[in-house]
């Protein structure tokens, strides 16, 4: 199948390479010349495990190319839209200018029989609006919505072997059958392996995606709210999560309390969902998502307050080591990263923040050049009054007191992700604090 992917960021670059790896002929198009240059040379423009390998093998196969020229999509019959839908500045709504611009730029190159497939996360109602635009501009062309559920850090695996597929398709029976057949061919491998498929209307497909992210965000904020209570009650939120997680109706996954969720999706998606509900006159249905957001942001403040308290009432001029800047391990993505936010807040209080991360330093430096970035844990903790573990990269999870105690100025540590052993650190004489557990 000949496929184009418009937008080659964290989602689109992986999708393009994975589709080529599956045997399709793919062109990825992006307006960012540097990204396209890197991808064309077989280099991943961001850190994502497994992406370099499939970029190399798919490029060598001759089935994958990248371009900044939209005319290159002319050969393809299925066109994925994977551009960003960030939070609009000064608002909670999604900024739809990139999706609209991408579709407008695509229209002159579409032909009858082509299928435009939305992958970006969008406000409900977008697919119906864009389907009308596509059909009016190019008779015989159609649109489907095929939301994406990949997780950064596992993006290649999640794209090649998704846990489910969702097609939102036209209510015209003939168009719907053609769109479904095209998508079935795109995903023939996953479908052949028994991946569950939900075929539905546009609005449901759009809502499936945003509801999934809202549920995940709610689950994380739920356990973080409980961790606030556990902290004052002297309980252990990790053991509590294990215990409630044994109930299959609840499940243990996404019940890790800590400094909360960040990234380019969960935070902006719950806000955009609430904003869209208000536009639809049902704002009250999603008021709880404001609380989910507030609980989440409170976790960051809690760490800042804890640092000040542990440093005797003020952070000014105190050296603070920050381990982790990415919003989660195995990604270099710093969008709405709780770790980076905490580092910036402490810097604002006059602390001398020395921050490190295995892969996210250059992204963090570009956004917050005021912080002091170092390449290693050893440099970060040297003479630090306090150490903060904020992103649970495997090398930070494996830290022991012996690794760093001769370098620090004060044996204080905050385990923002509840991943270290408190008895081990305490018995080595550290003032060890976690998030909602002893
Ligand atoms: N990052 C993720 O893990 C996932 C993201 N999503 C959704 O996918 C969408 C994209 O997200 P990311 O890839 O993370 O964003 P991103 O910001 O990494 O990538 C977006 C790309 O689109 C390009 N772009 C913008 N306007 C364009 C245009 N007119 N023509 C061609 N390219 C254009 C940008 O240059 C950028 O490379 C968002 O709606 C997001 O919510 C959905 C599931 C997973
Ligand atoms: O729409 C999207 O872009 C994607 O958003 C999330 O994926 P992602 O943002 O890559 O990361 P997650 O693994 O969901 O983690 C999100 C945040 O929650 C935090 N988290 C996660 C789990 C947990 O138990 N506790 C917790 O604080 C992580 O540290 C991270 O900051 C969803 O998991 C994907 O299914 C979805 O496709």
Automatic annotation (TrEMBL):
It comes from Herbiconiux gentiana. It comes from the Bacteria. It catalyses: UDP-alpha-D-glucose + 2 NAD(+) + H2O = UDP-alpha-D-glucuronate + 2 NADH + 3 H(+). It holds the Pfam family UDPG_MGDP_dh. Belongs to the UDP-glucose/GDP-mannose dehydrogenase family. Pathway: Nucleotide-sugar biosynthesis; UDP-alpha-D-glucuronate biosynthesis; UDP-alpha-D-glucuronate from UDP-alpha-D-glucose: step 1/1. Its EC number is 1.1.1.22. This is UDP-glucose 6-dehydrogenase. Residues 321-422 form the UDP-glucose/GDP-mannose dehydrogenase C-terminal domain.
């Amino acid at each position: 199948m000949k496929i184009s992917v418009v937008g080659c960021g964290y989602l689109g670059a992986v999708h393009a390479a994975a589709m080529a790896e599956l045997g399709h002929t793919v062109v990825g198009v992006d307006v960012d010349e540097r990204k396209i240059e890197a991808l064309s040379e077989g280099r991943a423009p961001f850190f994502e495990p497994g992406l370099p390998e499939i970029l190399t093998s798919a490029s060598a196969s001759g089935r994958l190319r990248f371009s900044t020229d939209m005319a290159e999509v002319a050969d393809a019959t299925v066109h994925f839209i994977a551009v960003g839908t960030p939070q609009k500045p000064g608002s909670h709504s999604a900024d739809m200018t990139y999706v609209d611009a991408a579709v407008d730029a695509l229209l002159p190159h579409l032909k009858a029989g082509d299928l435009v497939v939305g992958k970006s996360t969008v406000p409900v109602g977008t697919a119906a609006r864009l389907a009308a635009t596509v059909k009016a501009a190019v008779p015989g062309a159609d649109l489907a919505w095929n939301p994406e559920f990949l997780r950064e850090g596992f993006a290649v695996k999640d794209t090649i072997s998704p846990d489910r597929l969702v097609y939102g398709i036209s209510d015209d029976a003939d168009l719907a059958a053609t769109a479904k057949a095209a998508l079935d061919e795109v995903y023939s491998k996953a479908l052949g392996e028994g991946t569950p498929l939900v075929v539905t209307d546009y609005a449901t497909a759009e809502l499936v995606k945003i509801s999934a992210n809202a549920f995940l965000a709610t689950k994380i904020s739920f356990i973080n709210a409980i961790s606030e209570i556990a902290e004052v009650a002297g309980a252990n939120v990790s053991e509590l999560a294990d215990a409630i997680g044994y109930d299959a109706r609840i499940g243990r996954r996404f019940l890790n309390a800590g400094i909360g969720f960040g990234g380019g999706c969960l935070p902006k998606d719950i806000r955009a969902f609430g904003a869209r509900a208000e536009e639809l006159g049902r704002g009250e249905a999603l008021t709880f998502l404001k609380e989910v957001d507030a609980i989440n942001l409170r976790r960051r403040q809690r760490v800042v307050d804890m640092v000040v308290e542990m440093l005797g009432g003020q952070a000014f001029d105190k050296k603070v080591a920050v381990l982790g800047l990415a919003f989660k391990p195995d990604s270099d993505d710093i969008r709405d990263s709780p770790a980076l936010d905490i580092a910036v807040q402490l810097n604002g209080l006059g602390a001398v923040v020395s921050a490190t991360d295995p892969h996210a330093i250059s992204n963090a430096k570009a956004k917050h050049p005021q912080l002091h970035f170092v390449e290693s844990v050893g440099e970060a903790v040297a003479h630090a009054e306090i150490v903060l573990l904020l992103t649970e990269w495997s090398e930070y999870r494996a830290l022991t007191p012996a690794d760093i105690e001769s370098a620090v100025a004060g044996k204080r540590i905050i385990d923002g992700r509840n991943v270290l052993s408190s008895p081990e650190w305490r018995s080595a004489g550290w003032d060890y604090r976690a998030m909602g557990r002893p």
